[in-house]
Amino acid sequence: AIHDAIFTNIAYSSSSSDYAGTAIELHGSDMAVSNNHFSAIGRIGVYVGFGSAAAITGNTYAGKGSGDFLDYGIEVGRNGHADISNNVISDNAGVASADGSQSAGILVTSFFDPETPENSSGATITGNTISNSDRGIAVGYDAADSSMVAAYRNAFSGNIVAVTSTYPAVDAAEN
Predict the structure, then answer these.
(1) What angle do CA 155, 152, 94 make, to 5 degrees?
(2) What is the mean pLDDT of residues 105-120?
(3) The pTM is what?
(4) How far apart are the first and last CA of the chain?
């Protein structure tokens, strides 16, 4: 478990557009990530991938606002799976000038996963508060993405888009 920690100023290079820096990165593990605080992170607060399963609960992620960078409070990819609940995520509004990629409070994508649905990334997203972000929850990368997401009882405010998907169907009732 990773809990009750403060992660700040995690970046590869803050003076260039490298779009890098991750506070917690899970590879092939089962992990509980709870009650942590994240700020001034280069790109990702918690990354769940490579067959990992995570319970991500009660964390606070403060993004960098608008600018030429990317912010993801939580990213799930590369055959990762996560239960994401009761987090407060805000100010993920950067847009990458290199390719127009947009920030999101939570990103779930199977872009780098094998092409079979049983190896897709997935998340259940409940009870989170996501505000002042470009995308509250972003699902997918392109029309071939096979991510699986259910998002219930989340609160969105001040986001450009609350929930968006490039192709995968997203069950987003009662938000």
Answers:
(1) 50
(2) 79
(3) 0.95
(4) 29
